[in-house]
Write a structure and sequence with these properties.
The protein is mostly helical. Helix content is 75%, strand content 0%. Helix 2 runs parallel beside helix 16, helix 5 packs parallel to helix 7 and helix 8 crosses helix 20. The longest helix is centred in the C-terminal third of the chain and has 33 residues.
Length: 512
């Protein structure tokens, strides 16, 4: 059903008539449940590692250190196996996203999401039934396969199905569901923390819920027209395009997709094609935006919020409740991006968000440097100030680098290298997440409050990189990004001039 709102590409280039249809809204919402899987896992890991029953069963050394009266505040949770519990998922996700990029191109976005939900469901079952650490880690690896495949398919699916004018807001639904997943995990952790012996099993087992929703929902949604046409199903692709656009006059957009897919299908080795000079700009920017996204320090907060709060002297219940508060701020703040990204643009939100996070990281570092020593407990006033600062930091991330990292990297690649290029973005995200998850508790032990200044320095660097190197893609149809963004950029346009006109005009020549 059409929503009655005509969208165009905005400013120059081709305008493709379309409505914001109910079909697009339903498909985008269901697909975004892949983000709920990812978010729930991010939130759940930090919560269960703060539960005494969980630590006693799988990490008894950490349990002993946690309750040792003279233990260093910054080193209570420094344990490589505890960090491996959190980080192992992301190693599996790196490999899975590579396989999924090939699977996406050969079989489509929808089957990839179905496979992701099945792997995630199996991982949840293994975790809830875990009897020992190897079984627990095995479950995390299955979860990682689900996360990697889901993160590869979902943002691409939404970017390809959405009208250009609404692509940003709809794609942000993926990040919104990530934040809701984190919040849901925090609430579950808080409620199950009082369940003796088996609270952690309930928390880990609840991960099966978003997997089931995505699996069932994936049988309702349609495949993207670009994926159908790329795999030779032109009639079905045209029918689907009319269905999701809510208009019969889709010839211009259909022909544009045909041109792009014909060129894409001539590329037999898309990973090799990525290294050609005209494809380097989106590859470099897709990688750096996900590298920087993780080095904002956000996953330090999301993975280990309960651990951080306990480090500052909060009790177990209080630390979990504080994590619920930050999770709520995260979800509500993401809505800002939903309503502003297609008006304000991508770059402006990234820059302002980084400035806000920089300020809060520096203030948090200063406060803890002064007030949190090795064995003391900070005052209630200082603890509340830190929680407020963390909420402000999370707010800044939630409407900027959080959603826009996934959005931008899913829209900047041409069709012929979209799956391969987006794999490098996802893999970079998973690799950096693994590094931070594996190293943070050790870094906290050695760097103490200076860890916040470490991330603040990265925020300065990423702001400079965005201002200088990233083109604005607001309102540009996804298959015109090269001509209207990359080829107009002050620096990257040289990659297309030196490559020769033939290399970038081939998709359009296919029309003649």
């Amino acid at each position: 059903m059409p929503g009655g709102i005509i969208a165009d590409s905005g400013g120059g280039g081709q305008d493709f008539p379309s409505n914001l249809t109910l079909q697009v809204l339903v498909c985008s919402t269901i697909a975004a449940f892949g983000g709920l899987m990812f978010g729930y896992d991010i939130g759940i890991s930090g919560g269960v590692t703060a539960m005494d029953d969980f630590l006693l069963k799988f990490f008894p050394k950490v349990y002993t250190k946690k309750h040792h009266a003279k233990e260093n505040n910054y080193c209570k949770f420094d344990d490589e196996y505890l960090q491996l519990f959190t980080s192992s998922l992301y190693l599996a996700a790196i490999v899975a996203s590579g396989v999924a990029s090939i699977f996406c191109r050969k079989y489509g976005r929808r089957p990839t999401m179905q496979a992701a939900s099945i792997f995630f469901f199996i991982g949840a079952l293994l975790n809830v039934a875990a009897l020992n650490l190897p079984m627990l880690i095995a479950g995390r690896l299955f979860l990682g396969v689900g996360v990697g495949a889901g993160n590869q398919a979902v943002p691409l699916f939404i970017s390809e199905i959405a009208p250009a004018k609404y692509r940003g807001g709809l794609n942000v639904c993926f990040q919104l569901l990530i934040t809701i997943g984190i919040l849901g995990a925090n609430v579950v952790n808080y409620l199950t923390s009082t369940v003796k012996n088996h609270g952690w099993r309930i928390s880990l087992g609840a991960a099966a819920v978003p997997a089931i929703i995505l699996l069932v929902g994936s049988f309702v949604i349609v495949e993207t027209p670009a994926s159908l046409i790329e795999r030779g199903k032109k009639e079905e692709g045209l029918k689907t395009l009319k269905k999701i656009r809510g208009v019969d006059d889709v010839n211009k957009e259909f022909e544009e997709i045909i041109r792009a897919t014909e060129f894409a299908n001539n590329i037999k080795h898309p990973f090799r094609e990525l290294w050609r000079r005209p494809n380097r700009p989106p590859l470099i920017c897709g990688i750096f935006i996900h590298f920087f996204q993780q080095f904002t320090g956000i996953n330090v907060i999301m993975f280990y919020a309960p651990v951080l709060f306990q480090t500052m002297g909060f009790g177990s219940d209080a630390s979990l409740l504080s994590a619920v508060i930050t999770g709520t701020v995260n979800s509500l703040s993401t809505l800002i991006a939903n309503f502003t990204v297609d008006k304000a643009g991508r770059k402006k939100l990234l820059i302002y968000g980084a400035l806000l996070m920089f300020a809060t990281q520096c203030i948090m570092g200063g406060v803890l440097l002064v007030h949190l020593k090795s064995t003391n407990k900070v005052s209630e006033t200082v603890a509340k100030i830190v929680v407020i600062l963390i909420c402000i930091f999370v707010n800044g991330f939630a409407w900027s680098w959080g959603p826009l990292g996934w959005l931008i990297s899913s829209e900047i690649f041409p069709l012929e290298t979209r799956n391969a290029g987006y794999f490098f973005s996802v893999a970079t995200n998973m690799l950096c997440t693994f590094i931070i998850a594996q190293a943070f508790l050790t870094m906290l032990c050695h760097m103490r409050a200076y860890i916040f200044f470490f991330f603040a320095a990265w925020l300065v660097l990423m702001n400079v990189a965005v201002m200088a190197m990233l083109p604005e893609t607001k309102g540009i149809p996804i298959d015109e990004i090269v001509e209207r963004a990359w080829m107009q950029h002050w620096f990257w346009k040289r990659c297309y001039k030196s490559a020769g006109a033939d290399d970038v005009e081939k998709p359009k020549q296919a029309q003649t």
